[in-house]
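ARCHIVE ENTRY
Sequence with per-residue tokens
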Amino acid sequence: MNKRQIGLVIIALAVVLFLVTLSLTLYTNSLNKILHQSCNLPAEVCPFNKAVPNQSIIGFTIVALFVILGIYLVLQKEPKLKEVKLAGNVRPKNGRDASNSKPKISPQDLKELKSEEKKILGLVTDEGAIFQAALVEKSGLSKVKVTRILDTLEGKGFIERKRRGMSNVVILKNS
């Protein structure tokens, strides 16, 4: 059940409670009129001559609170689903961002890298964003070796690792 349906049920229960309270109030008033006729006290002092009993006031107050709650639930808008980004600068699989420009990695920077570092950087560039476990599978290197290579590449400013649950997402750093 959504909030709107719950609100309608509460309003329906409030209407039933209102009718019960009203009928009991009318019954009590008619009974009090009969009892007042046999009472020897003046009308101002007679306990049977009250217009509305205290219990009825409490009942009508509870009914009013139920109606207000029901109307609030009926009129409340459903929250809109928000888009959740995986990471602020994750790129699509083709390695390009929204402006369709490749991250700038100069050939001179690539010359300084070892062959295994180039291999890992190439996989990250091809995918745009890749889990570290997928890098281990695709590169054929051990977890420890991939972690150390990623530490080196992160230190040189080529990539970023972002924690996602129990694993890391590796993305190219914006230059």
Notes: Residues 3-75 form one domain. DSSP finds six helices and three strands in the chain. The helical segments are 3-37, 54-75, 107-111, 115-127, 132-139, 143-155.
